[in-house]
Amino acid sequence: MSGPLSGHHVAVLLGGLSSEREVSLVSGRECANALERLGARVSRVDAGRDLAQVLSELKPDVCFNALHGAWGEDGCVQGVLETLGLPYTHCGVLASALAMDKAKSKAVLAAAGVAVPGGGLFNRFEAARRHVIEPPYVIKPNAEGSSVGVFIVEKGANAPPQAIAAPDWTYGEEVMVEPYVAGKELAVGVMDGKAMTVTEIVPRKGFYDYEAKYAEGGSEHVVPADLPKHAFEKAMKLSEMAHAALGCRGVTRSDLRYDDVNDILVLLEVNTQPGMTPTSLVPEQAAQQGVDFDRLVLWITEDAYARGGAGRLASTGETSGKGAP
């Protein structure tokens, strides 16, 4: 098939080893299909421990990293790709590792002037024995994404959730405990250092957990969010600041909470490899800005190739690796 990526071999890394494997398979499928529509020769690679060997044999021009969570999003796979000298999408080793570690990224963001929640890092057994901060608060794994293993402890709760001390807990020994910020759940996609728009996420039930993020109909997205002008602009600015402070590149997504009663806005975390599924926020925001899914995938791929030192990947089209479409 002819297209702007004709003659180029792209390895799409998908699946992987994390708790977010199933979402990554969907992201990878959607991106691989788009790359084929753009004319690329695509190799779909389920990223396991033999990744270096597989890629050494495939010899792709560029790797599209559609992995989510540990191993694929935390700097580990990025280190493998750096060692192999292969251009790859999204953030580098340091930014990926920093953003995945909630405690360390919060320290960096706070130092850069980004408003973040309070709280701190605790051993999961200590956090299960007693209220380490006054309820209401949120407990979440320190190094997981996509709202897995997250609990909201309501005001007046007698005890913390005991699931964090259970033998089948697989999300690490440290948990982040933060004061619960009531109000609106917001997300801002940042592309080439510039915020796209603000989305308000309204879960159909409960809070914005893993199911609400990825299940069809799990949440309603209001794009652009119906916010006061100052809050909308501040959410955009904080997301750009966070992207820059962590040393991110390509496309990221910041998650925020806005207490519209007390006018308090805080940034919760930065996702260095946002979902690229049919229900994902970044493709939806890009479309709202006039950038369709294929063009978004093309820009991400070109951006990776340009940063890999090989110059412009596509021979035609409106995008380039130096700026967003």
Key features of this structure:
alpha+beta, Rossmann fold, 325 residues, four-stranded antiparallel sheet, D-amino Acid Aminotransferase, Chain A, domain 1, single chain
Question: Would you write up a description of this structure?
Answer:
This protein is an alpha+beta fold and about 325 residues long. It has three domains: about 10-90 and about 290-305, Rossmann fold; about 100-115 and about 180-270, ATP-grasp fold, B domain (D-amino Acid Aminotransferase, Chain A, domain 1, 2-Layer Sandwich); about 120-180. It has ten helices and twelve strands. The chain has helices spanning about 20-35, 50-60, 75-85, 95-100, 100-110, 125-130, 210-215, 230-245, 280-290, 295-305; strands at about 10-15, 40-45, 60-65, 120-125, 135-140, 150-155, 175-180, 185-190, 195-205, 220, 250-260, 265-270. Strands 10-9-8-11-12 form a five-stranded antiparallel β-sheet. A four-stranded antiparallel β-sheet has the order 4-7-5-6. It has a three-stranded parallel β-sheet with strand order 2-1-3, with helices on both faces. Strand 1 (about 10-15), helix 1 and strand 2 (about 40-45) form a beta-alpha-beta unit. It is globular and about 60 Å long. The two termini are about 25 Å apart. Mean pLDDT is about 90; it is low at about 210-215 and about 310-320.
